Structures are given as C-alpha cells and as structure tokens.
From TrEMBL:
A Pfam family recorded for this sequence: HTH_5
InterPro entries (UniProt xref): ArsR-like_HTH, HTH_ArsR_DNA-bd_dom, HTH_Cmi2_C, HTH_MetalResp_TranReg, WH-like_DNA-bd_sf, WH_DNA-bd_sf
SMART domains, A to Z: HTH_ARSR
GO MF annotation terms: DNA binding; DNA-binding transcription factor activity
SUPFAM superfamilies reported for this sequence: Winged helix' DNA-binding domain
Every HTH arsR-type domain range: 5-80
Top-level taxon in the UniProt lineage: Archaea
The organism of origin for this protein: Methanosarcina barkeri 3
Protein name as annotated: Archaeal heat shock regulator, ArsR family
Amino acid sequence: MDPTKLLDILGNENRRKIIQLLANRPCYVSEISSRLGVGPKAIISHLGLLEQAGLIECSVDEQRRKYFNIANNMRLEVSVSPYAYTVTLHDVPFDRDNKEEGPVGGETPQGEEQSAFFLKLSSRLKELKKRQEELAQMQQQLQAEYTEAMDRCLDSIEEIARNPVECELLFELLKDETTLATLCYNLRLHPSIVNANLIDLTKRGFIEYGIKNNQYYWKIRETGVENE
C-alpha cells in the first residue's frame, strides 16, 4: 500500500485509537464502540477503511459474532528535516505458525521448567527493547549528521554554482539521482535550460550520468572533482 495513503487513514484520531485497542487484543464492534464512546455505525465505517488498508482483519467466533484483530506486522516511518520529507512503509514478516518450540523436545514446559522458560523469554524481550532504543538513538544521530552534511554541501554549492539553476540542480541531485524529465518537473524549467546546465556541470566534473532501464539518470560524481 502507498505509505502516504496509510498516513492519511491514520490521521483520524478514532482510527488510531481502534488500532491501539486491537494491538492489545482482538475486539468486537460493541467493545470498541463502548471503549471509545463512538456509535457502532461510525466504528464499522472506520473498521472497513482499516481492513481495506490491510491493517486489520475480521474473524467470526463460534456464535457467528465478528471480531477484529491486527492483520500484519509492519513499520511506518516518517522523517522530516530541513532537506527531506520521507514516508516509508516496511512489511515485517512474522510466521505465527513457525515459532520456536520449548526447550524439551518441542513439548510445552511444565512446572519449574515453564517458569524458567517464561523468565528466559522475558529477558529476551528486555534485550530486544534495549536494542530498539539503541537503534532509535543511532537513527537520530544519523539524521543529525545528514542535516549537518547537507548544510555544508549547500554552502559549497553557493561557491561553485555559476547561476541559480545550477544551485537548484545540484541540490536536487544531492538528494537522489534522477532523470531530465523529473528535474524539469521539479524545477518548472524548460528541458533545454536544464539540459544546458547539466552539460556544463558535467564538463566541469561535478555530475555524471548513467543508463538504467534505457533511461539517462543524472547524479553527483562519485569521484573527485576535476576543475578546469
């Protein structure tokens, strides 16, 4: 699913609250309606959108009553900085039917063994939470370093660019390699103007192009700059 569409769906407070409830345990429509203080009709509408997005799924109990639970394991990330805005969605595969078995030949531990097994799992969970926190700190540090590097690159661009178009082109290519058509669209400039500046920057050794899927892609050079 398009992550920006998912972000729009989760922009509704009641839908976020529904996800929060279902993250704890499966719930019936009546339970969700009662907990949130929202009418069943509105809850059913929210559930329908969440189900279409693949976030939740519906099951039926022995009395033919519908209940809902989280369908998939996924991670939605939003990154905002002075130089970038990205929304990414990652599916995290998890096979509930292929979990690691207990320590005794695949049998469920009993008595003291069961207690020890639970404590071992609890310790493992704490370890994973700690690693998640460390990863989050590392991501924060990387974003700070990225922003600082972009600041310095922009200062450098002001020194080497010969006109405003070159400034904008170099900034676009710093973010990612791209095509002439995309550059023209982003900068709202005629292809002849963009192409002329790209050729000049290439001759001066700042950028280069490659071919991918029969298309020319422009990018910042990976080797040192060779000034005239």
